[in-house]
Amino acid sequence: MTKIHAVITGVGGYVPEYVLTNDEISTYLDTSDEWILQRIGIKERRILKPEEGSGVTYLAKKAIEDLRRKNDYDPLEIEAIIFATTTPDYYLPNAASLIAYKAGMTNACGFDLSAACSGFIFALEVAQAYISSGKYKKVMVISGDVLSAVTDTMDRNTCPIFSDACGVALLEATTEEEGIIDSILHVDGNSLEHLHMYGGGSINPASHETVDQRMHFIHQEGKVVFKRAVTAMSDVCEEIIQKNHLTKDDIKWVVPHQANLRIIEAVAGRLEIPLDKVMVNINKYGNSSAGTIPLCLWDWEKYMKKGDNVILTAFGAGYTWGAAYLKWGYNA
Fold first, then answer.
1. Quick one: CATH architecture of 181-327?
2. How far apart are CA 194 and CA 284, in angstroms?
3. N or C terminus of the chain with fewer C-beta within 10 Å?
C-alpha cells in the first residue's frame, strides 16, 4: 500500500507595520540597545497597534492573503484548520472558527491548539496525522501570537523579548517521499513557576486583585528557562537525527524557535551545525512565540529547494518542546 505523507505546499507570513526599536524601549525602561542586543540578540520587533488592526486573526488573515498570492488554492477545499496560538482573540469562540469565516474556509473543521512557543511543530504533527490517515487532503496550519497583549512594558526582563507575528502553512497529501517524515514531542508541567501567566484562567479569573498584582502578563525566569531550552532542544534534535539515520551533512536547514540568539547559537554549537545552516531572524522580528518558526520558513522560502532536509525545533511554556524532520516539498 502506498504511504501518504503530508507535505507543505506553501507558506505565508505577516508582521505588523509598527517597528518597536531598542532605543524606544530605553526611553521608558532602564535598558539600552547594547544591553538588549548582547543578552537577547534583538534589534527591533513588530507590534500590532490598534490603528492597524486587532487580534491574532487579523495577522492570520494577512498571512493567508500572502500565501494565496503565491499559491492560488480554493479556500473551500481546505478541510481542517489548526490554529496554534496562546493569544486568541477571545476565550470563545475559538480563533479557528473566526479565521474560517474571515478567509472563506467555510467547509473546514477547526480548532485552536495551545502549546506556546512549540505550537507550530505540535500543529504540524496533528496535520500530518489527519493527512496520512487519509481523513483529509488539505489542512491549513496557522501559527502566531499577539504577545504585546500579555507583555508587561514595565518588566525589564521580558518587555524587550516579545513581539507579534503570524505564519501559515498549507499542507497537502502526497505519495512522494517528501513532507513531514518524523517528529518527537514532549510536555512537562513541573516548572510552572519559571514561565507562566497566572491570571485569567479558571484558577485566577480576572478580578481587581489579579489586575493589581499584574498577573495577566508573562513572567519568565530567564536563566532557568535558558538552560532548560538549550538542553531540551539540542537533545531532541540529536534524537531525531539519529532515529532517522541522518548525518549532520545531510541536514540543509535547522529552524529553531527564535527565543534568544544565545540559545540558538548554543543549540547549533551542541549539534555541531554551522550557523549558515540555521535560520535566524530574531534580530528584526523578536520572539512571537508560535509565530517564529513559520516566519523563518516564510523569510527563507526563496532559498529552500525541493528535497532539502529540514529540522524544526522549539521550546516553550508548559514546558513544551520537540523537533520535527521534514523534506521540503517545492522550489519557490
1. 3-Layer(aba) Sandwich (3.40)
2. 26
3. N
Give the mean pLDDT per block of 10 residues along the chain (332 residues): 91 98 97 96 98 98 97 96 98 97 98 98 98 98 98 96 98 96 97 95 97 97 96 98 96 98 98 97 98 98 98 98 98 90
Q: Look up 287 and say whether it is catalytic.
A: yes
pTM over 0.90, yes/no: yes
CATH code given to domain 5-177: 3.40.47.10
Domain boundaries, the chain: 5-177, 181-327
Strand order in the sheet with 320-327: 179-187, 320-327, 309-316, 253-256
Instruction: Give φ, ψ of 143 to 5 degrees.
Output: -145, 115
128 Cβ contact list (under 8 Å, min separation 6): 5, 6, 171, 179, 180, 183
The catalytic residue among 159, 166, 257, 309 is 257
Instruction: Out of 5, 22, 94, 117, pick the active-site residue.
Output: 117
| Structure confidence by residue, pLDDT tens digits, 121-138 | 999 999 999 999 999 999
Question: What is the total residue count of the chain?
Answer: 332
- Position of cell 526611553? 27
Selecting among 22, 94, 287, 309, the annotated active-site residue is: 287
Q: Does residue 117 carry a catalytic annotation? A: yes
Same fold: 5-177 with 181-327: yes
DSSP 8-state code for residue 190: T
